[in-house]
Amino acid sequence: MATTLCAGLVLTASSPVGQSAVAAPAPVTAVLNRDVDTLSRGNIDRALIQISEASATTPETATTPTATVFYVVSAAYLRAQPSTLGNVLTTLATGTQISANGDAANGWQPVTAGSTSGYVKTSLLSTTAPTKKATSNAAAASSSYPACASGSAVEAGLVANTILVHRAVCTTFPDVTAYNGLRGDGSEHASGKAIDCMTSGARGQEIAAWLQANYSKLGIVEIIYQQKIWTTQRASEGWRAMPDRGSATANHYDHIHVLVV
Question: Which of residues 82, 99, 126 is at a domain's end?
Fold first, then answer.
């Protein structure tokens, strides 16, 4: 039987005439680099599935809890530390709305009032807004008193309650003619919320007691006289002794210091 080799094709004498030659399989020279995921889905489907999976595992946006709102039920000090010895940052009027700044501890509530953060006694706060009183404000009340003989210059830069104290004292006790109001010395006087009534002795005691009895009407939160202090926040303790500051004036023997809200 004759055999013919031609260009890699194997033909035998027994092959039918006219049948086409079949090429031999090519050697494997490359490795397919497609995984099951590529073969089973198109790129568009894969992109959609990835987006769907990502959205399913994205955590929800955290919600910031709403701070508890408190209302001042009685004129209060905002202090820098949770203690009656803490520095007074400002005084808060009755009805002032403030926000809790954490949990209360040992009778003190951390709060934020405006842009100032500090501590207020929990006993002076309520979550219920106080009922508005149908009374005139301090500015209107002060107008019911005649102008003081000490002159309007004393009232320059003072808040309404301080003006009210000035006019109430000078009308009720006309023998007191000297007062110190606004001072730029970094003390409470710089805020316009303090006034000194220049008096001494028994007369000073009488006036200090009158101011204490009328503190609510006049918006008073603190009175200092004869090296003793009385405050609305510690009213139940009465007049408390103060340390010696070295002179009659520094110890408030020649004047009554009044702080208002």
Answer: 126
CATH code, 95: 2.30.30.40
Q: In degrees, to the nearest 5, what angle opens at C-alpha 16 toward C-alphas 12 and 21? A: 65
Q: Is position 24 within any domain?
A: no
Give the sign of the dihedral formed by CA 93, CA 191, CA 81, CA 69: positive
Q: Are 255 and 247 in contact (CB under 8 A)?
A: no
Quick one: 144 and 79 in the same domain? no
The answer to whether the CB of 175 falls within 8 A of the CB of 203 is yes
Phi, psi of 107 (to 5 degrees): 85, 10
Residues 121 and 142 in one domain: no
| Average pLDDT over every residue of 171-191 | 88
52 Cβ contact list (under 8 Å, min separation 6): none
Q: What is the pTM of this model?
A: 0.59
Q: Tell me, yes or no, whether 15 lies in a domain.
A: no
Residue 96 has pLDDT above 70, yes or no: yes
Q: How far apart are CA 255 and CA 181, in angstroms?
A: 12
* Residue-number span of the structural domain to which 197 is assigned: 138-260
SS3 209: helix
Distance in angstroms (rounded) separating the CA atoms of residues 194 and 100: 28
Beta pairing, strands 97-100 & 88-92? unpaired
Distance (Å, whole) CA 118 – CA 92: 12
* pLDDT single digits (tens) 9-31: 444 445 455 555 555 555 545 45
Q: In the prediction, which pLDDT does 250 show?
A: 94
